[in-house]
Amino acid sequence: MIRYDCLKLLASRITDQLVVTSLSGQKIEWASLSQHPGNLLVGTMGTALGVGIGLAIGLPERKVIVLESDGSVLLSLFNLPTLANLAPKNLIVFVFDNQVYSGTRISEPTATAGKTDLALMARGAGIEQAVTVRDLAGFEQEMNAALSGAEMKFIVCKIEESVTHREITRTDLDPLENKYQFVRYLERTEGKAIFRGRG
Amino acid sequence: MEAQLAERLVSGLKQAGIDLVTYLPETRLSQILPLLRADPAFTLVPVASESEAVTIGAGAALTGKQVAIYIECTGLYVSCYTLVSIARRYGVPLLLIVGYLGSMADQRNNNVYAVSGAYIEPLLQALQFQFQILETGDGLETHIQDAVREMHALKLPVALLFSGDFTR
User: Fold this and answer.
1) How many domains does chain A have?
2) A182: which of B28, B80, B92, B139 lies 20 to 30 Å off by Cα?
3) pLDDT tens digits, residue range B111-128?
C-alpha cells in the first residue's frame, strides 16, 4: 500500500470536511489530488495534529481530518495524551507510517522501523480506538467507518515508502493565501465572521 | 497573586472577548485556572506541552475562537518552533498570557528561574512579537483589551508578561 492510493480514495469522499496536512510528501500529494478550500496545507513536522485538534474543538459539528506521518507524530508525542483526553468526536487522524524520514532522500529510518508501534503508543496514551491498517482494503474500510461515524478515529496506515510526490508539481499556494482561503470558506459555510479586522 | 488580581485578570480576558484558553499550568498565575474553569464563557484546553498550546490554539483561532494561551515564560522556549512555523507563518492572532518567572520583578525569583527569565524579552524581540510587561494591576483590563486589539490588527501573537504583584 502506498500513501498516494490511500489519498486518492480519501479525496473522492471529501465534501465539506476540513483537511489538515502534515509535511512535504503528503502535502504535495494531497494538494495535487484536492484543491478544496477546506484544505489547510500546514506542511511542517509535528504541527498538523495540534492544529487539527484546535479546529475540531472550534467547530465541533464539522468533520476534521488530519493527515499525519510517523516522523511528525514522533516529533510531537505530547499530542497523544492531549488528544486522548480531549477526544473530539469529529476528528479523524490518519498517520501514514512509511517508517522513514523520506524527506532526507536517504530513507533514514524512523523509530517505527524499529520497535515502536504508534497505534500501541496511542492506545497507551488513552486513544483506545487506535488501529493499524496494512492494506488498501483495510484502509478503505476504516476510512468509510470514520467518515460515516461520530467518534474520534486514530488510524495508523502502514505504507511502503514511495517517491510519487517527487514527480508531482508542488502547489504554489502561499501559507497566508491558504489561511485566507480556508478562513473565508469557513465564514461562508459556517455563516459567521472569523477575522474581524477593521480596515 | 492576590485573589482580587486573579479575578480581575479573568474578568479582563472575558471583557476582551477571549473565549478559549489553552494552558499548561505554572506557579505564578495559577489562581486564574479555577476561575476560568468556573466560568462557562471559557473553553479550557489543558495540554501537555506549550508547543501544542500554540498549535491547538491556532487551529481554534482559525475557526473564530478568541484564543489566549496561558503558559510559564519557559514555555516560550518550548513553543518557539510552533510560534514561528504556525502562528507567525500563517499569521494567527493569539494572546499569550505568560507568567514571567525569573524576571527582575518576579517576587519569587531564584536561581532556578533567573537565567530562563533573562532571555525572554530578547526572545520576543527576535520573534518580532509585541509584548507588554505588567507588574501591578493598574489598568489591567485596559492592557488586556489593548493586547487583544493589537493581536487582531497584526494577526499575530501578542504577549502579556506578568511579573511584580502578579508573582507574589
Assistant:
1) 1
2) B80
3) 999 999 999 999 999 999
> Nearest residue on chain A to B64, judged by CA atoms?
A194
B contacts of A197 (beta carbons < 8 Å):
152-153, 155
Which of B139, B99, B94 lies closest to B117, judged by CA? B99
Residue A143 lies in a domain: yes
Through-space distance between the first and last CA atoms of chain B, rounded to whole angstroms = 5
- State how beta strands A100-101 and A108-109 pair: antiparallel
Q: What is the ipTM of this complex?
A: 0.97
Residue A48: is its pLDDT beyond 80? yes
Range of the domain at A108: 3-190
B85/A44 touch (CB, cutoff 8 Å), yes or no: yes
Contact B90, B154 (CB under 8 A): no
**A22 within some domain:** yes
Q: How far is A1 from chain B (nearest CA, A)?
A: 30
Residue A76 has a pLDDT of: 98
* Angle value at C-alpha A185, between B42 and B82, nearest 5 degrees: 55
B44 in contact with A, Cβ within 8 Å: no
> In chain B, which stretches have pLDDT less than 50?
none
| Residue A84 belongs to some domain of the structure | yes
Contacts of B56 in chain A (CB under 8 A): 50-51, 53-54, 57, 82
Which pLDDT does position A195 carry in this prediction? 86
CATH for A130: 3.40.50.970
Q: Which has the closest alpha carbon to B63: A27, A192, A15, A44?
A: A192
Residue A199 lies in a domain: no
Residue ranges of domains in chain B, CATH in brackets: 3-99+126-167 (3.40.50.970)
Q: Do A54 and B56 touch (CB under 8 A)?
A: yes
